[in-house]
Amino acid sequence: MRLEIRHGTLSRTEGVVHFGVPAARWWDNIGFTCSTTLLFRDEEHVDRWCAARDMHRGAIVTIDQAWRLAHGWYRDKSEPFWRLQTVEETEALFAEVGLSGPFWSLRG
Questions:
Q1: What is the pLDDT of residue 107?
Q2: What is this structure's pTM?
Q3: Residue 27 and residue 40: Cα distance in Å, rounded?
């Protein structure tokens, strides 16, 4: 698989991203969270990967959604004025990229 970014914009959007851990639980074990947030060719590959690991399927998002989430999440992390986002700000970012429902709620 190949992702293409041109002038800061994702120009090739093949595949999906699987988030294995609900957002409210990410910081319980960030290493595990990152190890289950992966790029796949399609949903069938996600299902096979989860079955091989006896893992429940988490949330599947488009490459475009994952790109916009990453851009919003990391856009100011290296700036001296950076501060931790509030729950409301983080949930607003999720909503902005079309991520809603119980999996994305930080209050659960």
A1: 86
A2: 0.87
A3: 23
